[in-house]
Structure formats: structure tokens, C-alpha cells
Amino acid sequence: MARMFNRLGGWWQLWMTLTVMWTIVVITYGWMNLPRAQQMPHNPQFLSKLSNEASSILFGRDASAEPARGALVWSQTPMIVRMSNGTRLTFPATTTGERIAFVRGEYSQLLNVKADEQKGPYLLEMLAIWLAPVLLPLVAGFAVRLICRGYKPPLGRVIPGGRSPSSIGRAVASAFAISGTRNRTDGNTMAASAAHPVPMSV
Known about the structure:
single chain; mainly alpha; 7 helices; two-stranded antiparallel ribbon
């Protein structure tokens, strides 16, 4: 690999070096911001997607959550429980730890489903972010190279049977040269005849 890299030109080496560095940056950024259940913000619609049992526990509609007859109730203050994404849900004061864990499990499943739905578009966005700086310089470099080489199709290839501009120019120049040579020859002949007139015989 090192030998192949050294055989490349300076611009290719620079492009490959920058591409590797940009790839590392995009992968690191993409992994750190990958949609995860722990990072999903709370949405009130999540609560509407809970099962009937979980909703009854959370909103206090479960009859079994009522304290048993004769049991001591130390406080009637609602319980605030922190979910896996940091959201705090309020439970009735009589809710047991087992029922709270049941609601937390369903809420975490909803967060996982939402995170999986966002992973596909997110990865496509990261791919576009990675490709744009990598392909644009490559395409621009090839375009500049073609322009610098003066890439122009000959006229003879565009018009079947036609002559290229260079051959037409050479033909016109040759015609002017031949015409100039003939004019000079005729002028010299006329001058010589005037200087030495031919005697007329009687």
C-alpha cells in the first residue's frame, strides 16, 4: 500500500489523505449522534401507545393499585420516576416498584422503536455528508484537467466528410501564397518587356 501511495502524484496523495481524515471525522460524529433510545426526546404520543395495563398503572385507573384495607399510607404525594431517556413520569403514590418497572419496560420499548425508525434516514444523511466533500474535488479536478488539455472535438468528426479547421486554414494560406507568387512573376515579366522592347520587323 505504501508503494502504491508513493507512486501516485502529489494531488492524488493529498486527496487520499484528506479523504481518510474526513472519513474518520464523519464516522466519529455519526457514531456519537446515532439515534439511541436513551437520547430520544419525550413525546406525549408515547403515552398514548402504552398498553391498557401500563396506562392504568400510570394514570391510577388500576383498582389493584389501591392500598389494602388496614394498610398504612405514609404519603399521598405522587411518585416521580425517571425513565431511560431522562423523562420523568408521575405515578400514583400507591404504585408498587414492580408495576413501575412494567411501565418503564414498555416505555423503553417505544423509545427503541422510535430510534430504529430514525437510524435509516440518519445513516443516509451521514453518507451524503461524507460523499459531498470527497466527490466534488475529484469531479472538479477532472473537469479542470480536460479544460487545460483543450479538449475540443475536431470539426471533421462533428460534420461527416467535412474538413477540420486546421486543414482549411492551411489550404487558404497555400492559395494566397500561390496567388502572390503568380502576381510577382507576371509583374517581373511585364517590367522586363518594357525595358527591352522587341524590334518589329518590316
